[in-house]
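Weekly puzzle thread! Below is a chain. First person to post its structure in token form gets bragging rights.
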Amino acid sequence: MTNHPAADGPMVLVVDDDPNIQRWAGAILGSVGCRVSHAPDVLTGIMALRSAKPDVIVLDLHLPGGGGRVFLERLRKLPAFQRIPVLILSADLNPHTAGPLQEFGITGLLEKPVSDQLFIRSVLQAARPG
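Winning reply:
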């Protein structure tokens, strides 16, 4: 898990095992004042919740340790973190993979590759309270 401290912007936890996505997300979100923490797998992502205290989670579907669905199942069972907005960022978005995730109250779906502008806009919009 790595942290990219920035200004006082929203804290974003990026749960993705691809180092290129981690670097890209850290750089692009950091450029607009977000603080970013990374986790490469389900277990590390769940453990990072308490230290990162994210305002938004960006989650890949295919992760070591059970994948995005397992992460969401565990996340939504933790009372302190049940309401955190989750954006799915995956190259494997289709009705079969994304449809069943709706029960977890996900905030949005972004397909890789996603434009920098759409990614930033989606994360900042999800981070807004209320």
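Puzzle host: Confirmed. Bonus trivia for everyone else. The first helix runs from residue 19 to 30.
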